[in-house]
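Curious: why these numbers?
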Amino acid sequence: MATTSDYQQMLRGAALRVTRPRVAVLGAVHALPHADTDSIIREVRRELPEVSHQAVYDSLHTLTAAGLVRRIQPSGSVARYESRVGDNHHHVVCRSCGVVADVDCAVGHAPCLTASDDHGFTIDEAEVVYWGLCSDCSTTSSA
């Protein structure tokens, strides 16, 4: 589990100024994988009750731009943030409750991850979202 000191070092390593809101937002994203902005604001306010919505939004934007946080937005969902960065993992989303979980990159032969025509792009990432029902929702719908 990362500490405040770890978050401060992460910010410094990304050449970012260390501020209390940035440290708190980074901590919230690590504590709440795939959290939406409102959840992150609530978590940050446990430590910094006076923090504004704008300070959290600005911190999320800065942390995302610096590559310390990843922003995802599955179709039909609000933006969510995660601390797992630097790899090409994917996500599975429950159609019923909206829970999101990480899925490691496909292994073995995965022809859908190779573009049939790259249109001159240098492709460095493929984004895949798997959709279905989580175990809780599957159990509820079959009961």
